[in-house]
Write a structure and sequence with these properties.
With 516 residues, this protein is mainly alpha-helical. It has helices spanning 9-15, 18-25, 36-57, 65-88, 106-118, 122-125, 127-146, 151-162, 165-170, 176-195, 202-215, 217-236, 241-265, 271-280, 290-304, 307-320, 324-335, 339-343, 345-350, 359-376, 381-404, 408-424, 446-452, 464-470, 500-505, and strands at residues 93-94, 98-99, 435-439, 456-458, 475-482, 492-499. Strand 1 (93-94) and strand 2 form a beta hairpin. Helix 10 (176-195) runs antiparallel to helix 11, helix 10 (176-195) runs parallel beside helix 12 (217-236) and helix 12 packs antiparallel against helix 13 (241-265). The longest helix has 25 residues, at 241-265. The relative contact order is 0.12.
Length: 516
């Protein structure tokens, strides 16, 4: 019998490529040492993310996706901390905001814990997002390594997706797509290890499978896929049955807990959630055609990921679907992401971060593509060692470029801070009951409720005169669009508090103010 001892990556590629790499990953040939260059690239990626996001981590919540989403969860955290678990229904109910339980509740708990430990700063409130993003970077590397890819390939894949506008802009946004991704990837790591026959603590498997459905809708799909897979493995009596039982049982527990919480939060009915489902799927008042959906997704993919990144990932995914050791991961990564914008198409059309979870299949595809390239170049170790250095240089340049010339999504977030600054320099009359707002301020405006301690109420232009007659001394936050003739640029929006009478005399008109 010929015995082959694997000593490094170049030998792995020369001897057998896939088969030898699988033996190494499964522990039959000894575990490959950490590639210091690749590890350095992962550390550099995390540092670039923190450096680029530092100014937004502690920024106020304003009139943007970042501020509107964070305001919702921060209100729930405040209610959970001040009113208690029962009165707040685990953060879903607030006296000022009412009930919001359209998404799984773990983000309420995470935010409350972060604020208890880190204080009331915005950086602490956003901690589940930006710390979760750092965890996602590390977990994706571990996942790709468990799938049999080289250190270098794994690091290059993660570095590539971590310098996209999607990750750099929205990796600090407190919302369930961002905070649930690390839970979904962690569960996939456990699943991948179990599939390869590697040791997995059953308790860890059960906890992750139970937490995923409570973290977000996409993570719930991951739990459903992994739990179903585990049931089939149990039926086949393959592998470590206790681990498969833990994964299946944990997923069931998570689904049950989520269902119980939803009924509790909504007062014993799913009707509110059903109405939201109809709205997001284009079956309600907001109807969206498939042509409009694909047009919006083409624009969003190009702006948030870059068409070249998507093309490279698509080529790599095609290779991955033909390779046994990574085929299952590629299929699952596509199954838990592609249907989401197709089903919830109205949400995908109006939220440029809706496809945040596509970071997962992009990482799998780019990692696989890089692995194939390194296999071809395995006889040139100097070139393969230079890959992390080259990618790191590109990552630094791209991050600097995005900082110097921010993408549109970043400009909207920064512009939205103006609403928070206007609130900071204004004190509402003590007898004013509501935080009125008018103009191009999106819903929900929970960030305004959080800042003023009053329910935020939108006022249409036609209602300004009526509100002025009923509340003559009240102030209203007005967002006015500044018209300019610069094409393909974001309209300027200015924010200020005015008396309701002043706003009635000069209605903000919204974007119609710039119509000829």
């Amino acid at each position: 019998m010929l015995r082959v001892v694997v000593t490094n990556e170049a030998t792995v590629s020369r001897v057998d490529d896939d088969a030898a790499r699988r033996r190494v990953m499964e522990g039959h040939g000894g575990r490959r040492p950490v590639d210091r260059w690749a590890l350095g690239l992962v550390i550099l990626t995390s540092a670039l993310f923190l450096a680029q996001a530092w100014s937004t981590i502690g920024a106020p919540f304003g009139n943007s996706h970042d501020g509107r989403n964070a305001g919702v969860w921060a209100m729930g955290s405040q209610s959970l901390r001040e009113d208690g678990v029962i009165a707040s229904r685990l953060g879903s109910h607030s006296q000022l905001r009412g009930t919001y339980a359209n998404h799984p509740p773990l983000i309420y708990v995470e935010t409350a814990v972060a604020e208890l430990l880190g204080g009331s700063s915005r950086a602490a409130t956003r901690a589940p997002a930006w710390l979760g993003s750092l965890a996602t970077v590390a977990l994706l590397v571990v996942l790709l390594r468990e799938a049999g890819l080289r250190w270098t390939s794994s690091a290059v894949a993660v570095a590539t997706i971590a310098v996209t506008p999607m990750f750099l802009v929205y990796g600090t946004m407190l919302d369930t797509p961002v905070t649930s991704l690390p839970f979904g990837v962690a569960l996939l790591v456990v699943w991948q290890r179990a599939r390869r026959g590697r040791r997995v603590p059953p308790g860890l498997a059960a906890v992750l499978a139970a937490l995923a459905p409570l973290a977000g809708w996409q993570a719930l799909v991951v739990a459903a896929v992994v739990g179903t897979w585990a049931l089939f493995e149990l039926r086949r009596r393959s592998g470590a049955r206790v681990v498969w039982a833990a994964l299946a049982g944990g997923a069931v527990v998570g689904f049950v807990l989520l269902g119980v919480w939803l009924l509790w939060a909504f007062g014993g009915t799913f009707q509110v959630l059903v109405e939201q489902l109809r709205l997001r799927t284009g079956q309600s008042t907001l109807v969206l055609g498939w042509g409009t959906l694909f047009q919006s997704q083409w624009a969003a993919v190009g702006a948030m990921f870059g068409l070249m990144t998507v093309l490279l990932a698509a080529v790599g995914l095609a290779f991955a679907l033909g390779k046994g050791h990574i085929r299952a991961l590629a299929l699952v990564s596509l199954a838990v992401t592609i249907p989401y914008p197709l089903v919830f198409r109205t949400g995908a059309a109006v939220h440029d971060y809706w496809n945040y979870w596509f970071l997962l299949p992009l990482a799998v595809g780019i990692g696989m593509g890089c692995d194939r390239l390194l296999s071809i170049l395995s006889h040139r170790p100097l070139i393969t060692r230079a890959v992390p250095l080259a990618v790191g240089t590109v990552a630094v340049l791209m991050t600097l470029g995005l900082s110097v010339r921010p993408p549109a999504a970043r400009q909207v977030v920064v512009q939205g801070y103006g609403a928070a600054l206007a609130e900071n320099r204004t004190t509402l009359p003590p007898d004013q009951r509501f935080a009125w707002h008018a103009g191009v301020i999106g819903k929900p405006a929970s960030w305004l409720t959080l800042a003023t301690g009053r329910p935020a109420v939108a006022v249409a232009d036609a209602d300004l005169a009526r509100v002025a007659s009923e509340h003559p001394r009240d102030l209203i936050l007005v967002a006015r669009v500044g018209c300019h003739d610069r094409p393909f640029t974001i309209p300027d929006v200015t924010y200020d508090f005015e008396t309701v009478a002043e706003a009635a005399a000069r209605p903000p008109l919204g974007f119609a103010a710039c119509s000829p």
